[in-house]
Amino acid sequence: MQSALDFYEPDNFPSGISRKVVESISHIKNEPGWVTEFRLRALETYMSRPMPSWGFIPQFKIDLDSYVHYVGSRQKKKKSWDEVDPEVLRSFERLGIPEHERRYLAGLEAMNDSETVYANVKKELADLGIIFCDIDTAIREYPEIVKKYIGSVVTPEDNKFAALNSAVFSGGSFAYCPRGVKTPMPLQAYFKVTAASSGQYERTLLIADEGSEIVYSEGCSSVQDSGTNFHTAVVELVAHKDARIHYTTIQNWKKNMYNWTVKRGIAHESAHITWTDVNIGAQTIKYPGIILAGDHATGDVLSLAFAGGGQIQDTGARIIHVGKNTRSNVLAKGVSLDGGINSYRGLVKFEKGATGAMSHVKCDGLMMDARSESHAYPYNDVSGENGQLNYEATVSRINDDQLFYLQSRGLSEDEAKLLIVSGFCEGVVRDLNVEYSVEMTRLIRMILEDGKAIAAPEQAAAALP
Question: What b/e sequence results for 304-338 when a residue is b if at least 16 CB atoms lie within 10 Å of its CB, and e otherwise?
Answer without folding.
Answer: bbbbbeebbbbbbbbbbbbbbbbbbbbbbbbbbbb
